[in-house]
């Protein structure tokens, strides 16, 4: 009981700090979401099946009961580490996301279904590591927007990109570029924007993460080529406000395939 009270107090304190941080970034815009991105690092074999069942049968239904969603669940097709599952959880507040596990611990239905994953023995763990980060949606893209194919479980793939900046000034300039045209240039190129998030807590800050959707891998290079040749993008990227130095020092680029239970 004392440990639980300590954890609750710690999470509440963290949530308060995050709320202050978000307010400083202009959270006044109504409906602006927060995102938690979870990475489940796995070993090939039983862990992938166990983690997939846990995410689809236990985690997503329980988080949906908490009013969160649509929730994305993906397997890394191309990335620095595989096998890896990613879960993108939108929430109305930072506190809702950072305290979600406390509510899951009190959900009897969740605990029953999650038992094989949560209570796997140390000699046969159900995962290697779980890492998470917390983001706030861009003001100009305040809500996650699934592609139309998500509703019918149609054919689709996703690209999730993280841009690290060398300084906080460069990071702010890069976020500004999205609001000054990049959203539109992606749309004109046929790339569907799913979400854009500014990292509040996580590794390799300052950075931002966004997700795009397309029908297939075959379209990936074609649509990015269309983006690169867009006259508006060429003009924006050559603007001295953004071209005075590299605003992005490193890009992490993941190609993701949705799991069967994904709501995105």
Q: Which sequence of SSEs, written as H and E, runs from N to C?
A: HEHEEHHHEHEHEEHHHE
Query: What's the Cα radius of gyration?
Result: 19 Å
What is the CATH fold-level name of the largest domain?
A: Alpha-Beta Plaits
For the terminal residues, how far apart are their CA atoms?
Answer: 37 Å
Which class best fits the helix and strand makeup? alpha+beta
What does the overall shape look like?
A: globular
Put simply, the count of helices is: 10
Beta-strand content estimate? 25-35%
The structural domain count equals 2
Uncertain residue segments: 1-28
Mean pLDDT: 90
* Name of the top-level CATH class of the largest domain: Alpha Beta
The biggest beta sheet reads:
8 strands, antiparallel, barrel
Write structural notes for this entry.
- The chain is α+β, with helices and mostly antiparallel strands and 264 residues long.
- It folds into 2 domains: 2-136, Alpha-Beta Plaits, CATH 3.30.70.100; 147-258, Alpha-Beta Plaits (2-Layer Sandwich), CATH 3.30.70.100.
- It contains 10 helices and 8 strands.
- It has helices at residues 2-24, 46-65, 94-98, 100-105, 108-118, 149-152, 168-188, 217-228, 231-238, 240-243; strands at 34-41, 72-78, 84-91, 129-137, 157-164, 192-201, 207-214, 250-258.
- It has an 8-stranded antiparallel β-barrel, surrounded by 4 helices.
- It is globular.
- The two termini are 37 Å apart.
- The model is unreliable at 1-28 (pLDDT under 50).
